[in-house]
Amino acid sequence: MPRSPLTALLGLSLALAHVGVVQAATAGGPRSSGASAAAKDRGKPAKASKRRVRRGSLLGWVVPDSELRTSPAPRPSGDIRVYSINYKEELQTNIYNPDGSYSVEAAKQIAHVFRCRRTGEEHEIDPRLLTILSQVNDRFGGRPMELLSGYRFQRRTTSNHFHGTAADIRVAGVRPRDLRNFVHTLDAGGMGVGFYPRVGFIHVDMRPAPSFRWIDNSRSNPDARDKQPPRGWRRRKLES
Q1: Residue 215 pairs with which residues in a beta bridge?
Q2: Distance of CA 222 to the CA centre of its chain
Q3: pLDDT of residue 28
Q4: How far does Cα 99 stand from its chain's mean position?
Q5: Which residues, in sequence order, are CB contacts of 212 under 8 Å at separation 6+?
Q6: Of 27, 88, 216, 218, whose Cβ has the fewest other Cβ atoms within 10 Å?
């Protein structure tokens, strides 16, 4: 029996829909990079690429191993000259004893200068960070290192500032970009380096691997809520 025109049209529509489904299935679902697909077809792993994440004015990325130091940086002199912007205090000291061990007295002096600007609380500063700061001191001829933020007794306890492993710094007469580029050369793994071009400083911290970099073009907000002291701090301070 010959098919009616309506039946023939319905059959053609079903055939075209089937072709579309087949094409979508062979396309591999969500779009993937050409390099990864080609490598999979050849049975070879795809080459890893540097992943960058942009959120508003913040651009951050994990540092590939190829950009890290392959050997430890030279031991610094131990000299540190730091000026606290918040407390208007300057300290010149050496983090090493004559026998090469870390100086407990110098560590106490540094912890005092690095104290929280809101609460006055002090915290030991990571010796690895102090080593980096001494290398900065040596590189730029002992110019005053200006400390914008050291230890922070704050609500967000995941911050490296809260753990005494971070510092926001600049060096008198040195472009922040040049300071950042030098600190990059010291990274053998486990460092965070942030660049804040609008405010004119860099952030340096010690962290578990991998190392991380970021550029933040936003205006700095030192009074952000997560940087405030923990709730109830004043009450507990008065009761102690």
Answers
A1: 59, 195
A2: 17
A3: 38
A4: 34
A5: 60, 61, 62, 63, 191, 192, 193
A6: 88
> In degrees rounded to 5, what are phi and psi of residue 144?
-60, 130
Residue in the structure block whose two tokens are 């704050």: 154
Give me the half-sphere count of Cα atoms (radius 13 Å) on the Cβ side of residue 155: 10
User: CB count, 10 Å around CB of 158?
Assistant: 8
**Strand order through the sheet with 145-149:** 52-55, 58-62, 212-216, 191-196, 201-206, 166-171, 145-149, 79-84, 89-94
Residue at token pair 């472009």 = 175
Phi, psi dihedrals of residue 181, rounded to the nearest 5°: -60, -35
Write out pLDDT tens, residues 99-137: 999 999 999 999 999 999 999 999 999 999 999 999 999
Measure the CA–CA gap between 132 and 230, rounded to whole angstroms: 29
Q: Is 110 exposed, middle or buried (0-12, 13-18, 19+ CB in 10 A)?
A: buried
**So what's the pLDDT on residue 228?**
77
Rounded CA-CA distance 107/116 in Å is 16
Question: Which alpha helices (H) appear in 27-103, and where do they start and end?
Answer: 34-42
From CA 206, how far away is CA 165, in angstroms rounded?
6
Distances in Å between the alpha carbon of 11 and those of 8, 24, 105, 229, 230?
Answer: 5, 20, 89, 71, 70
Closest by alpha carbon to 143, among 171, 181, 169? 171
CA distance 72 to 190: 13
pLDDT tens-place string over residues 53-91: 666 589 999 999 999 999 999 999 999 999 999 999 999
